Amino acid sequence: MEYLNAFLCGGILCAVGQIIIDKTQLTPARILTGYVVVGVLLSALGLYEPLAQWGGAGATVPLTGFGHTLAKGVREAVASDGWIGIFTGGLTAAAGGVTAAVVAGVLMAAIFRPGDKR
């Protein structure tokens, strides 16, 4: 059942993004940024944690999950370090995922020699 929930949650998030691309003039970059902001806002309102519990990786892997991770990190850092946590919490919480993405990107670039599509 966990796999089905993850598939449904991730699929719905992706379908909403595709509908926004098809029906509006927003650029993909703005849509992706909007997804991060929506994740932060839903997390701040306490609505994203139940979604993440239900949807698993379908909710935590997309960009809304990245926004949720940033907000959760800030919340925890403020609770432990005070107001300085506003500046450090999001960076600390997302450091592992960002590092993994950079390392994977460098490895793929080294293996496949990317270039312009001419």
How would you summarize what this structure contains?
The protein has 118 residues and is mainly α. The chain has helices at 2-23, 28-44, 48-55, 57-60, 63-81, 85-112.
Largest sheet: none
Q: H/E order of the elements?
A: HHHHHH
Q: Kindly estimate the percentage of residues that lie in beta strands according to DSSP.
A: under 5%
Which structural category do the helix and sheet elements fall into?
Answer: mainly alpha
Number of helices: 6
Terminus-to-terminus distance:
45 Å
Q: What is the overall pLDDT average?
A: 91
Share in helix: over 70%
Q: Which ranges are low-confidence, i.e. pLDDT below 50, for 5 or more consecutive residues?
A: none
Domain tally: 1
Q: What would you call the shape? A: globular
How many strands appear in the DSSP assignment? 0
Radius of gyration: 16 Å
Descriptive report:
- The model has no long low-confidence stretch (mean pLDDT 91).
- The chain contains 6 helices and no strands.
- By secondary structure, it is mainly α.
- It has one domain.
- It is globular.
- It has helices at residues 2-23, 28-44, 48-55, 57-60, 63-81, 85-112.
- The N and C termini lie far apart (45 Å).
